[in-house]
């Protein structure tokens, strides 16, 4: 009888191939995890920067649109249910032909890291009612509103999301002092 040569892999060849493919899988996986982590850090940094700049720009716009310099009060002494009043502005009520006054109030909630913007108007009966209320900033760690010069107000915000932190600062004055 003639015996044919058998073809196949030995156990040693199989173990070496398995070890090499395991090393390649670990390298590819670590590269993927590293790039995903870098992408998340970049996204968090971009979001914190947008949040910080957007909030100070909104506050600066409201300050510039205030009726007069005396209508801008940083750190007003107001009693609120919750939240820390950081800025009070007097402005012309939107849609009011009679030139009635509205007040824009910014409240900071340190426990939630949020800034709330409220528009308050005087009703016909003389009481105050909230016309609009919305959250304009999240992830806020610190917000500072101080008088900058004779008519100006300096707003500084620090925002944190994940490990990323961003700061923004602006100084604005009412256009009609």
Q: Describe it for me?
A:
The protein is an alpha+beta fold and about 180 residues long. Helices cover about 30% and strands about 40% of the residues. It has one helix at about 10-65; strands at about 70-75, 85-90, 100-110, 115-120, 130-140, 140-145, 155-160, 165-170. It has a 5-stranded antiparallel β-sheet. The longest helix is centred in the first third of the chain and has 54 residues, at about 10-65. About 20% of the residues are buried. The model has no long low-confidence stretch (mean pLDDT about 85).
What is the beta-strand fraction?
A: 35-45%
Stretches where pLDDT is under 50 for at least 5 consecutive residues are none
Compute the CA-based radius of gyration.
30 Å
The SS-based structural class is alpha+beta
- Oligomeric state of this protein: single chain
Termini separation comes to: 113 Å
Query: How many DSSP E strands?
Result: 8
Mean pLDDT, to the nearest integer, reads: 85
Helix segment count? 1
**Strand/helix succession:** HEEEEEEEE
Strands of the widest sheet, in order across it, are 1-2-3-4-5
- Give the overall silhouette: rod-shaped
């Amino acid at each position: 009888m003639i015996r044919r040569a058998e073809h196949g892999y030995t156990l040693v060849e199989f173990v070496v191939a398995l070890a090499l493919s395991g090393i390649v899988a670990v390298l590819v996986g670590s590269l993927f995890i590293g790039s995903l982590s870098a992408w998340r850090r970049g996204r968090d940094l971009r979001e914190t920067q947008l949040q910080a700049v957007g909030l100070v720009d909104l506050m600066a716009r409201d300050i510039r649109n205030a009726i007069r310099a005396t209508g801008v009060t940083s750190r007003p002494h107001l009693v609120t249910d919750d939240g820390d009043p950081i800025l009070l502005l007097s402005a012309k009520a939107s849609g009011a032909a009679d030139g009635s006054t509205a007040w824009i109030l910014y409240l900071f909630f340190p426990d939630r890291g949020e800034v709330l913007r409220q528009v308050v108007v005087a009703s016909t009966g003389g009481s105050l009612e909230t016309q609009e209320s919305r959250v304009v900033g999240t992830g806020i760690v610190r917000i500072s509103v101080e008088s900058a010069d004779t008519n100006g107000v300096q707003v500084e915000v620090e925002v944190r999301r994940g490990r990323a932190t961003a700061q923004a600062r602006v100084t604005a004055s009412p256009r009609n002092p």
